[in-house]
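Annotated sample (chain length 124).
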Amino acid sequence: MSYKILFVINAIVVVAFGLLLFLAPETGLAQFDMTARAQEVFMARVIGAALASLGILLWFAKDADEVAQKNLGMAALVGTVLSLIVTIIGVVTIVKGLGWVALIVEVVFGLGYAFIMFLQPRMK
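Output written by the structure step:
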């Protein structure tokens, strides 16, 4: 596995979810059995815009040099771990519906970045 492949897959996933939250926040929130009051719709759109921006950044990162890809991979790993912590808290306390899907996606990407950062260099 390479940074390029992981960045492309991650970019597609976060852009898709980001556009869903930005363009149709009520639908996105409904997948997690969350209400769509004005405050939640606003925050969903803000988060959707941020996710779409992250996806575009990851898309362009696929063509970066090796040092930049390592640094962006570490940033993506840290971001994924932080997001995973928030998602675990949410799934345990308030988020229902498809909250477990977000949890699985974050675990997969976290393991992918951890593998590329720490295990793959030792296998060479």
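Annotation: The two ends are 12 Å apart (CA to CA).
Annotation: Residues 32 and 98 are 5 Å apart (CA to CA).
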